[in-house]
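Chapter review: from sequence to fold.
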Amino acid sequence: MIQCQLKLRLNRTQERVAESWLPILGAVWNFAIRKIEINAKDKVYFPKHDFQNLLANHSERLGIPSHILQGVLLTAHEAWSRCFKGLARKPRLKGMRRPCNSIPFPDPLRAPENGKIKLPGIGKVRFHKMELPAGRIKCARLCRRASGWHLCLFIEAEPRAIQRTAHGMIGIDPGFRDLLAFSSGKKIDHPRELRVIEKRLAQAQRGRDRKLAARLHERVKNRRKDRNHKLSRRLVAENITICFLKDNHRAIAKRFGKSVCDSAHGQLRQQLSYKGLIGGTKLVFPENRNSTRTCSTCGALSGPTGLAGLKVRQWVCTECGTPHDRDVNSAVNALIAGAGCAPEVAHV
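The token string follows.
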């Protein structure tokens, strides 16, 4: 399954129709979420196929195609199923601060023709030219964003294999001063997308220009995503084993929230996970406990500790006298813990 996104060019009539559907679908979502929650207290659970037909014969009254209503009900049912299994949080209700901004199309769609794609209830919509993989469009979702309307297509096709350029083994230590530190001694500078644009963002927020502020946030998000896509693809192509140190980002965000958000290490780990399956790369996430304190040469716990130790970037082991860079030493320990190989092997 491949996901592709098309930037649409809706006319005024189509845009008016799509915008009129969103508050109705938000109300349908709230109805479904509350109904499942209330019935679950009485230990009443709905089968998936029965629940998606709960609003049968309501499409004409609401003015929305029936399969779109079924898609919203099915999404709400799956959200609660993941919550009951402990895989996700409790689904939230839609409202003024968190409005409904997407329209599901659960049925298969026809392939685009002549730069247009047909959406049920909206008609043929133009989109910016883009090459799509050959395959059957299983379902889609129309999303409203600050930059306009986008269509997310889910296509039944095999992803392209990532061409391997090297057969290395590497340990990675995520950081906030440098984006990543590798066991080979190299570091990647932090682009700091949010820091670059935060002055303009503050001006838009003080001026209460919500549209501009939302557009700037989306631009930062797109830059982070593009950076992580390129970086993850290069790492998978160059290495057969990647040991990515696992940090507790939720705890770190309580003290360094903006730095954690700007780094987007969680998104990078997620992209490495599925691209590693495509490229045949083994991905390991070792724990970060004592990774900066432990000497990668002799294994002694002689490194800096505590919040005051965060300022110490270079230190010397008191047991064996080996000088260390704090982040590189942590990356080497990640490789030793994850791949079980000596530091000399990591540089091959």
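Two observations follow directly from the output. Residues 10 and 125 are 6 Å apart (CA to CA). The chain has two domains: 2-156, 159-348.
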